[in-house]
Structures
1.
Amino acid sequence: MLLVPLLFFVILASTGLAQQPAAATQSSPTAISLDEAIARARTSEPAFAAAAAQAKIAKLDQSIAQAALLPSAVYNNQFIYSQGGAGVVGNPAKVKDPQQTTASLPRFIANNGVHEYLSQASVTENIGPQQFNAVSKASASLSVATAEMEIARRGLVAAVVGLFYASSTAGNRITVAQRAATEAASLTTLTQQRETVREVAHADVVKAQLQQQQRDRDLADARLNADKARLDLAVLLFSDPRTPYSLVVPDTRSVPARADVEAALIKNNPELASAFAISHLANLNVTSARLGYLPGLSLNYSYGIDAAQFGLYNQLGDHNLGYSASATLNIPLWDWFTTRDRVHQSEINRDTARTMLSNTQRKLIADLEVFYAEAVAAHDQLDSLNLSVTTAAEGLRLMRLSYSAGESPILEVVDAENSLTAAEIAREDGIVRYQTALANLQLLTGTI
């Protein structure tokens, strides 16, 4: 029975998770700003890492396509043996040298002689429109991969922004819940004091205690939610999510001008750039398919040894070194309509890409209208939410004075406390709403 806990501890120790919690709490919390949170998340989020890897691969594909335009060189070394013939070359009666009676030609005609040695450098160059179109396609694919990486990055930023402000408002909700719990405990004490001097009935004490119990539960829930929000964000920031940290919330900024937002949207939006790149790549695929109707040219130059002796000279003292050159023009004649079908396939994909581009443009216009209106509305409500908190706090103060003087029932005090708590929570939600709307607008326009 002790083996399972022991193995569990060994696994935790091997992964670095079996650390003393006291050591973590003793270190000072790391202050994390929004920009630093985004930078930390970029190094650990798998979806962004995969998109970045695809962009690097596309860059290498472009380099490979460009290299295909240049000549390739190889150095070949080969020995070929073929079975020799059984007779003499020519008329045996006229042969004076008995050594010439052995076969000097191969019986199995696969080579130039019984022994053939090849040691030569070969340079090959393929020239045709397909090679140049491949470079254009690789460049378009790189543009698509780069745009997709930017989309993944901004998706990561959106997730970090949401978790950042969720964690921040969860911490502020603890402050609100703590104040409400303290206020409820103070009301309970006041009702007990007034019951002692027979100014109120015991029902007021019961009502105040129920209010205090509820506020204590709300405080416990707020702390639990804050811990969850902190851990959700810490998963993207630290190797150990239990690392203590504090958040540095940026100051509230004003909504940018509409003209600046529209200009940035046209220039920096990754979804629009990706749609344009995909459409351009689809056009290049159509061109590539149509180039299948055109001929291709191949050039080859070889220099070295291709002889019956492996050496610079043969038995007669002649040079074995030599060269050969060839030019091949491949003209397509008949392929059972394969090229035609490929052209039709690429045209279908091109039409789909154009539809996607049009849809992306329309969706961005709608998103711009929604996000900008959301940011303006949320910003305009901030002053109203602050005023509501001030008004509710003043109302609670007056209601407690009225209750202490015996002029108001306890239910009105409880209602005033609930109104203040609701106003404070609404203010926190309003701040998060504005910060999130502003971040969505910045993500849409590429300014974050």
Note: The chain has a mean pLDDT of 82.
2.
Amino acid sequence: MLAVTFSVASVSGVRVATAQAVDGWPGFQGGPEHLGAATGTEVRPPLKLEGLWPSGASGEDRFSPPVVASGIAVAVSSTGVAAFDPSTGAARWSIARVGGSVFSPALDLGTGAVVYTEGSGGRTSAVVAVEAATGQRMWAVPLGGPARSAPSISGDQVVLGAGDQYLYDVDVTTRSLRWRVRTAGSVNAAPAVADGTVFAISEDAATGRARLYAIDLQTHRSVWAFSPPNVSIGVTAVSVASGTVFAGFGDQYVRAFDAATGRVKWAAPVRGDFSPSSSPAFAARRSFGSGALFIADRLGGLYRFDAATGKRRWDYQFPDAVTFGSPLVWGGVVYLGIDDGTIGAVDGSTGRLTWQTRLRFGAVTALVPAGQRVLAVSLDRGSRIASFVHDPRGGLVDRASPSTIDFTRSLTNFGAAFVVVALFLLGGLQLLVRRRRRELPGAGIAAESNGGMP
């Protein structure tokens, strides 16, 4: 059974969604409802901007990345929820929302409901479901505190973290709270659910500690837990695939755990910590061997690891931070949105940049596949939604990462520099020897004596 959930996180009060892997397994917290018609369709670079649509938000009221299914896309802002046609941007419906942090919604395929959170206090906070086609409210379940993560759906249950440091499980059928479990900190990214187990990471800003929990979905009892020994806040959301749990921690390590026992399968270092807006993305293409894990750190590093062993296959260093973006793996290409507005496409096999563009409207959040399109939300004031399609006339690049060492060129440059430095030192040494000879007392006397001899 595959995990089907959705993950978002808070950065400067803005909740943004993560991206996903379309190849093999949706290795983000978002599930197949987020894929729409993308499954079986590959949109490869180069891409071109097909449309740029206003989200309807204004000022600091920013939109989340949408969820897409059955020809409709739904996104959340701090004051409302809106649906639009993902191919044209035409508005379908919009409803008011009772404030709160902005997370992307989740889609319940069983009931056709869009599930989202609202409210900024104990009295107004709730999980809400509306009909995807019309926006009509279906149900709402109160929470004890404002949501800190997006909802994750597994069967008839919705799981999320709230500001009172509890994980909540809401029953969709009875429309009531099933259980809540206290954690050691705030859960700032949506839980993942796989094989009847909830996986979530809490962060305690006071102690700097992060803790990964595995909780039985039915009994709400702890199965296992893990906490790195050092300061480790600044985590990703959790991804689960093939019996393995993947997550990035603030101690600058990516870790893989056995989902059943919590045993650490491997741990691999990276250059930075992580944003909880991001998720590891797992892909199982044949060209990726036994499976590949893609992850982006907050410093702009994009990495590919062997999912089974943790061996780093490559990394690509982007020039700006990744606060809102997350890897999207599609057609063997890894897409990533950067804080400076750049959208980059890196070949999943080689790690070389194949295409990039830049939106001049603020940081780019998670990229969302929508049929034969890729949607991106740019977080300028009053977010804009950009739609990209394949451009058969566009150009590609073949660029190595700035962090990659060209050994041939490096050795050549080192050799040339060594010769220059050696010649410089040799010349300086000769001048020094000559000067010292002139300054020696014996050298002047000898000259005088020799000059006075008949």
Note: The two ends are 109 Å apart (CA to CA).
3.
Amino acid sequence: MGRTEYKNGMAYPERIEGIPIEAAFDTLYIYHSGFFEGQSGDPVYNVVFQYEDGNSAKESITSGEDLLDWYLNDANAPKEPSAPRSTLAWSGADENGQVVRYCLTAMQNPHPVSKVKSLDLVSAKGQTAGCILGLSVGKSGLLQVADKNVSPAK
């Protein structure tokens, strides 16, 4: 949950724990977007890798770098995330003609040879709240980064 959602009376969970994985893998692929985009580089949420041996590791998803506000509200706003590990995955218009977009981030597993028992998603409680549409695990190098000079589809 982000600060803006909280101020507006929206009640979303601050954490989701124990998403079962039960596998060793190189990369976590996250299909996501955000509500109320914050400053570029501000943490949105953390992904906590819970390993079978009891250890854990935390990686952050950041506004502007890994995900964008799902509505493109400003024609001068970035059209895609800036981090090399993230790309614009889909863009289209809703029933009112508002541009909507979703991003894909390839997050490296800090300990790829260790079995991940589960994942936790934990809000950074900043301006932006994450909207996670899907998670998948796999080998590295599957993300096809969009050409940053091409405008998103309308």
Note: Residues 3-138 form one domain.
4.
Amino acid sequence: MKPAFRRYCPRALVLLAAILAVTAVWLTAGWIGPVEAKMTQATEALLQGPRELDVNHPRVQAALAAQHRHGPLLMSEPEVVGTATGLDNADEPAVVVYTKSPVAVGAIPSAVDGIPVTVKVTGEIRPMQTEFFPRPVPIGVSVGNRGECSSGTIGARVLDAQKRVYFLSNNHVLARENHAPIGTAISQPGLYDLACVFSSINRIGNLYDFEPISFTANNIMDAAIARCTRTNVGRATPADGYGLPKAVTVAAAIGQQVQKYGRTTGHTLGTISAINGTFNVAYEDGTARFVNQIVVNSTTAFILPGDSGSLLVTNRRNPVGLLFAGNGNGTLAIANPIDPVLQRFGVTIDGSVPRQ
């Protein structure tokens, strides 16, 4: 009966039924007070969906300022791996502190400059480095440098001002953490998926440029591009993914619903839980600090090793970030904001464009 009811009843009736059900719970539980106000709040929540707070929200700006002032001291705690601006348990803007273990929780203040501080135990943050597709391969599939037995993910096909074609992924996927020479062959699949043996038949492009990862100064991105052709790399995900990303990017906002397609976990859904993140990321060559990062949370694994380089897009498929790292179980993911990445390489997403 319930599936038939959902199929044939207008959305207004479904919404009304939900409101009446909530009202019934309040009455039977003995609620006394402004029931009309409670019903209005419930109705607004149902109509508006998840709450999104961007950098222009006054309370978010206050939290960002507090994070900026106190972030360096918080990051000096050995067990702290990151800070960001997100929400506390009451869904109010807060400074979020991420720790390796519960040991550091007692050393973290409950508030700074009147802004609440919330602590999340995530474990160490690591880069997410880990099938042959007919050409042109979709985005979101295995890729890697010929000189390393690992696999990451093709994030997106991108174009420069002359409409030349490249694909985007991470430095640690395509450039081996700064070690690969420009022009090195890039393999699809990555060598981890080929028993660590490179064959020229799997060459899909060549390393064209990368932003070096610094182990002594702050980083904004873990990113690289490879030169390719339209016959080798397509623009959309496999059929079970979100499809073709849009060419128009958007800025990250707290509460924004997002998705990605990656080599290991495929199509996954998550929520941006914090912005302006500062994280210490443990690479093979050492620990690198990243600033102005996007934090994504999910109740199940959003990314796992091999998903590095995945494009982070909104539910409307607008690119918002480039994923590169996360915690051990993949429920917390870190992404570079997409606009600085694209500006660094002078490229745009080769995606769908609005109709004129």
Note: The chain has six helices and 19 strands.
